[in-house]
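Researcher: First entry.
Model:
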Amino acid sequence: MSNRLISIRGLKKSYFTSAGELEVLKGIDTDFMAGEMVSIVGASGAGKSTFLHILGTLDKPTSGEVLFDVNGGVQPFSLSGKGLSQFRNRIMGFVFQFHYLLPEFSALENVMMPELVNPISDPASTKQKAESLLSDLGLYNRRTHKPGELSGGEQQRVAVARALMTDPKVVLADEPTGNLDSATGNELFRLLMDVNEKKNVTFIIVTHNEALSKKCHRTLTMVDGKLN
């Protein structure tokens, strides 16, 4: 965990409303290393999800810099719309509190989806890779089932497999165990830790579960728009 993957300097985010400026992030300076597992905790409304969305380029900062140490160094917010989408698809994976699986497709098809939108992907190798990921997460025998036929924990494991489909450098997870019971949430977190260890994927996880957060390599706390 000695190689820096993401550098963040002076990151601020404000929303402008009829009532005036609402400052959500108030100047964040931090780094994330390749292969580490970091949890971010804090009270509701402290800015955790906003920070994660900016880190995932799903939202833009008001000011500040985000630098990814890949391909010689990339500032994603300097990229064009298409370039930013391609960067996001190749470098990042996402796991949210709600799985956001497509209900009309099978578990296998949902996992394949990030590669199917890539025009140069090979369908046969894509299917093989998706099956391998589902096997790693204990879901190979459920690969033909649609999301509505899976338990909540199984749906989240499919979402994790989908997030790993493009071999991302970093997976951003926003309350990934929030909708799961304690035992299922613990099992999912154990799987994330296993993926982190075996595949050296960086995980940045927003969570309210302090017991789970303590299992990460380190924990950051968001307080009033600042990260400590």
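Researcher: Second entry.
Model:
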Amino acid sequence: MSAPLRVWLEATRPKTLSASIAPVAIGTAIAYGANGFHALACVAALLGALGVQVACNLANDCFDGKKGADGPLRVGPRRAVASGLIAPQTMLRAAIAVLLMIVLPCATYLALRAGWPFLALGGVAAALAVLYTGGPFSLAYVGLGDLFAFVFFGPVAVAATYAAQTTQWSWTPALAGLGPGFLACAILTINNLRDEESDRLAHKRTLAVRFGAAFARTEFVACAIGAAGVAVGLAAWFRHWPLLAAVFAVLTLLPAIRRVLAGESGAPLNATLASTGRALFLYGILFSIGWIR
């Protein structure tokens, strides 16, 4: 019997998809400000980014379920493979289908429009989406997941979105991408802090496992400060003060920061993860509006 649609929807982890939406919004705003907005390229960039993240989440569900990281001690939302709702092979096939049916066509179109780097970038992103938790030396299991989230859902996503529309690469969107990159990393940090105990037993050596919960709590706060600092720094550099509106998105995380520093752990961090996802979405919107005003 096939799994209900709601199970598949849960497997995409919709509360974290702002990690794809925010950088595309920012890259599009910068392209618009340079008179380079291109609607179809914007849509392709968004679908491609979402496709990579969804495929990564589905593959994560598959491999974490097989490796035991989503075992009985898990306190996060249920995972379809670990719960027996979807077979590992079915979940992996779904991840590959997303890459082939969404990411590949988008990357191909953008490569034809703006150059071969988009096909190469799409291939690397697709491979890392699977290798994030797949294989014997997967990124998440050796502690490189944070770097992957920061780079690919930050500077790379914003710069690529800008280049997809203007057909030119620039350092400005890459620098702007540091902001959503920090908050994407913050989402993963909370996820890893919540799962620290079960990850340790499954030999999933996230930074929270390698360096402890105190490190993860500090990392979360540092990421929030970093995102705010990017908005402030760019506003000062370009003397474009409406960009400071993005700082408000980070300020919405102050209650979460207080709870995390006070020692919040386990299931309550599910709400903190969701609020961090919302803050990232708001950051992308406010930064984008601030840029084009």
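Model: Note on the second entry: The chain has a mean pLDDT of 95.
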